Structure formats: C-alpha cells, structure tokens
Request: fold
Amino acid sequence: MHISELEILFSSKRLQTYYQLLHGDKEKALAYYLLNMEISKSFYPLLSTVEIVLRNAIHNSCTAHFGTDRWLLESGIISINDRVEKVRKFRNRIFHYEPICNDLSALEKNHTALLDILSWLNKDLPNWLPQINRFQVLHQSAFELLHSR
Reply:
C-alpha cells in the first residue's frame, strides 16, 4: 500500500508522532507505528493480570479488614497509590490506541512498574509470566528501528 493511502486511512495527525521520531522518514515511521501496535499488544497480558489480581487482592483484603464484602459502600473511597495510578494512565494510553513508543525509557519504567505490582501481590507471579511477556524483544526492536540510519 502506498504511504499516501495509509496516511488517509490512519490520518496524518495520528502518524505525526512517528514522523517526528524518525525525522520525516515515512517508511520507517510506518514500520515504527506497526511496532508500537505490537508493543502495545505485548502489554495486554500484563495489564490484564495486574487489573484482575490487584482488584481481587484489594477486594479480599478490604473484605477481611472491614468484615464485609460491601466494604466500598460502607467505607467510602480508598486512595490509590501513585504507582498504581501511573499504571492506570499507561493502561488507558494503550487501550485508547495512543502512541507509547515515543519514550522508550518511560516504556521500560512502565513495564518494570507492572512487574513490581505483580510481585507485591504474589512474589512468584512475575516468574510465571515470561511465556506471555514479549516486551523485552519488542523493546529492543523499537530501539534498533529508532536508532538506525
């Protein structure tokens, strides 16, 4: 497919981040756009696991603490840790199809934060995930594509 057709389909505005990152090289930018989708996809298992395990851990802990599974209604709103809030914002970027590969250092920090949260909930859980966690390989591909000339 020709680049001009892809710009119409995906919108030049959406691709602008990638054009800037790759100094106007539209072919590399489109390859990086596709890689961004793959890297986003690689986070889905971690994000899903964090969401489910964290939600259940909070519910179980609060049920035990307050003596009822209706703890939220009876105790009011519970504040969320800054790190969990950052993960939530990162999750929303992925689920709203926003670019996540424009800062590879931040991307790695988000990956580490997800693994840290999982280890807080169960120390063995991060060791169980390598079979579905493709982040490191894709992160390296993003680095190579971004720094190739």
In short: The mean pLDDT is 85. The helical segments are 3-10, 12-21, 26-66, 71-75, 82-95, 104-121, 125-128, 135-147.
